[in-house]
Every structure is written in C-alpha cells, then in structure tokens.
Amino acid sequence: QKEVEQDPGPLSVPEGAIVSLNCTYSNSAFQYFMWYRQYSRKGPELLMYTYSSGNKEDGRFTAQVDKSSKYISLFIRDSQPSDSATYLCAMSLLYNTDKLIFGTGTRLQVFP
Amino acid sequence: GAVVSQHPSRVICKSGTSVKIECRSLDFQATTMFWYRQFPKQSLMLMATSNEGSKATYEQGVEKDKFLINHASLTLSTLTVTSAHPEDSSFYICSAGELSTDTQYFGPGTRLTVL
User: What is the pLDDT of residues B37-86, one digit of tens each?
Assistant: First the structure.
C-alpha cells in the first residue's frame, strides 16, 4: 500500500465547475499537508498548505484536512481553463520544509 | 516568493557519461535541499536529502555512488549522475526550504535524456 493515494484522473470539467481533488494516506504521523500545482515539464508550485486538521481558504481554493479519516481535499471554485494542470498532494512529518511524500497527482482539464 | 533555479533545464548525453545538475536558492539560504525524480506520468519520488556541509541522506533503493550529491554552500547543491544509462532518463527536480516562511520551494526541473 502506498503511503499516499491519489486518483490520477484525468478529470475533465467545464469552465465554472467546482472541482474536488482528494488524497488518502496511511501514516497518521503526517502533520503538514500541501497541495501543489504542476504544469507540464515544470516544477511544482505550492498552492496551499495546512497544519493538522481543518479548513483553509485562499481565493477560489479551499483545502480540507480530516486526520481522523486520513483524508485531504482541495476544492477549486469557478474553475478556469488556466487551472488545467496536474495537482499533487504532499505530506510531511515534522514541518513544511521537511522531506515530502507526494501523491501520484491528478490531471485536471478545464474546457471552455 | 523565493526562487529556486536549476541548471541546465535540459540535457542529452550519451550512455556512460556523467551529468551534473545544479540547484540554487537565489534569495535565501537553505541548509537542506531535496532531490526528487519524476518519471513520465508519475509523481515525484524523493531521492535524497542534501545537507550543507555534511553527507547527503539517500532514500532506500537510491544508489549513492551513482547519484553524487554535494551541498557545498547554503545556496548551492549539485547532483551528479555518474555513468548515466537510458534508464536514468527522467525529470530531476530539486527543492529548498525557506525556514523564515516555513515553505518549500521547487526548482523548474532538469530533463535528462540518456541515449
């Protein structure tokens, strides 16, 4: 069993849709949970991070962490074609600058 | 935000040669940098943790004699792929942690193709 599981997609949605991306994990010791966006042939770009359980909102993006279920989510409201990318969840044990364990990534396509 | 650069962005080499990839934190100091590898349509897999002034820590299954890491300063880490073979062809990405903001920044990646 992988430490972090993520549906690889691809996920195809129309512009303006609400997108839900999810990851599950097995190691209950993870404390920091990140979402990265990666465009083709580029390095990952940090979107949001959350410490422990709870919600965090930043513009059109909302991250949720449920440690009791070992489940994290990223919601994108009013999705745009520019949101088309691969979204990677990542987790670390100690802090954000610790080594990260990534999910496989979900490829998102938002069509006009 | 902080910037991490990598050089070169792309490299093509013959089998058996060695390739050096540089990772720099441009506007902050990083005592720790990480090297990841990403195969097509797969996620990032951590190869090693690069520590300034000391030996790198390699993940299980990564050959330390093949992937040489040097972290000689607080802004530069290098990864040398020795005696590269076609199976080493991959996207290599480094990251560096900025402690003041508790954020890890990634470089743009280096695409290595071994013929």
Answer: 998 888 899 999 988 888 899 999 999 999 999 988 889 999 999 999 99
Query: Position B107: which residue type?
Result: G
Interchain pair B43, A103: CB under 8 A: yes
Q: Which residues of B touch A100 (CB under 8 A)?
A: 34, 44, 46, 95, 104
**What CA–CA distance (Å, rounded) separates A48 from B98?**
15
Question: CB B95: neighbour CB atoms within 10 A?
Answer: 27
Enumerate the residues of chain B whose CB falls inside 8 A of the CB of residue A6.
Answer: 43
Closest C-alpha among B77, B99, B81, B100 to residue B90: B81
The values of phi and psi at residue A80, to 5°, are -120, 155
- B104, B107, B108 ranked by CB distance to A97: nearest: B104
**Residue B98 to residue A88: CA distance in whole angstroms:** 20
B contact test, residue of A99, A104, A106, A107 with most B CBs within 10 A: A99
For residue A19, the surrounding DSSP H or E stretch is strand A19-25
Tokens standing for residue A10: 């691809």
How many Å apart are CA B31 and CA B51, to the nearest integer?
A: 6
Query: In the 8-state DSSP scheme, what is residue A33?
Result: E
Per DSSP, the three-state class of A68 is coil
